[in-house]
Design goal:
Number of domains of chain B: 2
CATH topology of the largest domain in chain A: Rossmann fold
Shape of chain B: flat
Distance between the termini of chain A: 41 Å
Number of helices of chain A: 9
Number of helices of chain B: 12
Largest sheet of chain A: 6 strands, mixed
Shape of chain A: globular
Strand content of chain B: under 5%
CATH architecture of the largest domain in chain B: Orthogonal Bundle
Number of strands of chain B: 0
CATH architecture of the largest domain in chain A: 3-Layer(aba) Sandwich
Radius of gyration of chain A: 18 Å
Order of helices and strands of chain B: HHHHHHHHHHHH
Helix content of chain B: over 70%
Order of helices and strands of chain A: EEEHEEHHHHEHEHEEHH
CATH class of the largest domain in chain B: Mainly Alpha
Strand order of the largest sheet of chain A: 5-6-7-3-8-9
Radius of gyration of chain B: 24 Å
Oligomer: heterodimer
Structural class of chain B: mainly alpha
CATH topology of the largest domain in chain B: MetI-like fold
Strand content of chain A: 25-35%
Distance between the termini of chain B: 14 Å
Chain lengths: 248, 269
């Protein structure tokens, strides 16, 4: 078995407000192995993002244990490029915070910009480039820190559908190429099936693990868009859809 | 982004011409209104439709300004008011930003300060005038303090609100990088708030003029506010009107300067 990168054991989290206590997450346990893409899916407001915040160390769980084996990189819902910084200054932000800007890291970042087609937009400001490019810049900003584990928190949900398909495909290839481990939080069932090796389905609040699905798709071109054509795709979709138990 | 010089379609050239024409029409009308206003004022005075003794007259104002400039006293008055305003404005801005940062930093301090800020904000600051005069004498100090008092509280409130409105997710992003509170302030809160700070500064500038002129009304030996009160007391409306005119020109110049600086600073928009 591969190295375990993230280990969640009976993790629970309660929110406290003056009006009372809310159980957000209850006894969630699962592991993520090296190189694996794990999707976390569940009804909206069930605490998926909270779970990522716990893994990233931004929130302390009320109970249970979290073991993270390596550096964590976080990608948020929108690109959150700082509009007063140009692309180069934006992608260097994380390194700047960690006082790690030096010749080596700059070379690394320039290599990334070059590889992902942003080299000539280095000195552009975020509002001068397209949504797809902005998302790529945000990815480079995270990759600049060389994280071992990527946490994607609805990272594509602010994009329009076409861009979203293209970018998730692109991000997937980039991350697979550099052999990152990823935890992908999404509410999009198809996206989860197309991108992930395993899908954890969470229940309504308080979130517990409802089921875990191993995804095996037979497809010629191993990419999220290519794999959407796989014959098993629909089965997985129907299965997960039923489990999500959506009532409008 | 687009090449606007060559390969322009005829339709686009027509469009640009139309935009340009409209712009020229607006400017011309503005200038005509200004000239017409002074011309009608002058003519109405000459034809005795209005009493120049009460309403003054552009030609008499010009004469007054020339007379006051001859002995240099006008420049002293302008300088006194301008320097008082700039000092009050600078103090209001700097102290305001500093306090707003403190309130952002400590939510405890912010909560504690809230009712005091609300009361101080609603209080007509001119009521404090006599107190400042008793405490600081009749020099420039109470006037500058008046300018400061009028602008400070508004600055603090608007900046703190601006700081609090910075996108939570931007802060979360910095936290995922392990940023300290100081880094969150310098890398995100302050730069993200530059538009808020600039608009607070513009309001501040206007309020400082109000504060200083009010202060000069209450106690002063020089300044445009002094000239206005003095002119009113001796029934020399020429002096009053000239001073008001100079004051509005100065205030406008100051504002234009600030807009220019703003454009220089916010280059990403």
């Amino acid at each position: 078995m591969d190295k375990v990168m993230v280990e969640l054991k009976n993790v629970s989290l309660n929110y406290h407000t003056v009006n009372g206590e809310t159980e957000a997450i209850k006894n969630v346990s699962f592991n993520v192995h090296e190189g694996e893409f794990v999707g976390v899916i569940g009804p909206s407001g069930c605490g998926k993002s909270t779970l990522l915040s716990i893994i990233a160390g931004l929130l302390k769980p009320s109970g249970g244990s979290v073991k993270v084996n390596g550096e964590v990189g976080y990608m948020l819902q929108r690109d959150h490029l700082f509009e007063w910084r140009n692309i180069m200054q934006n992608v260097l932000l994380g390194l700047e915070i960690q006082n790690a800007v030096n010749d080596d890291s700059i070379r690394h970042v320039e290599g990334l910009l070059d590889r992902y087609g942003l080299a000539e937009f280095k000195y552009h400001y975020p509002n001068q480039i397209s949504g797809g490019m902005r998302q790529r810049a945000a990815l480079i900003r995270t990759l600049a820190l060389n994280p071992d584990i990527m946490l994607l928190d609805e990272a594509f949900s602010a994009l329009d559908y076409q861009t979203r398909l293209a970018i998730s495909d692109e991000v997937w290839s980039i991350l697979k190429n550099v052999k990152k481990t990823a935890i992908i939080v999404t509410h999009d069932i198809s996206e989860a099936i197309a991108m992930c090796d395993r899908i954890v389905v969470l229940s309504n609040r308080p979130a517990v693990v409802k089921s875990i699905h191993e995804i095996h798709l037979t497809c010629d071109t191993p990419s999220p868009i290519g794999c959407r054509k796989a014959p098993e795709f629909r089965e997985y979709f129907n299965e997960i859809w039923k489990e999500l138990d959506v009532h409008v | 982004m687009y090449d606007t010089t060559s390969n322009m379609s005829k339709e686009h050239m027509e469009f640009l011409k139309k935009v340009k024409r409209k712009e020229i029409a607006i400017r011309t009308t503005q200038v005509i209104i200004l000239i017409a206003f002074f011309a009608l004022w002058e003519i109405a005075g000459r034809l005795k439709l209005i009493d120049p003794f009460l309403f003054s007259q552009p030609s008499r104002m010009l004469k007054t300004i020339i007379n006051l400039s001859k002995d240099g006293s006008l420049f002293t008055h302008i300088w006194v008011t301008l320097s008082e305003t700039l000092i009050g404005f600078a103090l209001g801005t700097i102290i305001g930003i500093a306090i707003a940062i403190m309130l952002w930093w400590s939510s405890f301090a912010s909560k504690v300060a809230e009712p005091y800020l609300i009361v101080l904000n609603s209080l007509p600051k001119i009521a404090l005038g006599p107190i400042f005069i008793v405490w600081m004498g009749n020099g420039e100090a109470p006037i500058i303090t008046m300018g400061l008092a009028i602008s400070l509280i508004v600055t603090i409130i608007s900046l703190e609100t601006g700081f609090m409105q910075v996108d939570e997710d931007k802060i979360k992003l910095l936290k995922t990088f392990g940023a300290t509170k100081y880094q969150i302030l310098t890398k995100c809160i302050l730069p993200a708030s530059i538009p808020t700070i600039m608009s607070a500064i513009k309001i501040n500038m206007g309020l400082s003029w109000v504060g200083v002129i009010t202060g000069e009304f209450l106690v002063s030996k020089a300044g445009l506010g002094y000239l206005i009160v003095y002119g009113g007391q001796i029934f020399k409306l020429d002096i009053v009107m000239s001073s008001v005119l100079i004051l509005s020109v100065l205030a406008a110049l100051m504002y234009v300067l600030l807009v220019y600086i703003e454009k220089k600073i916010i280059k990403w928009q």
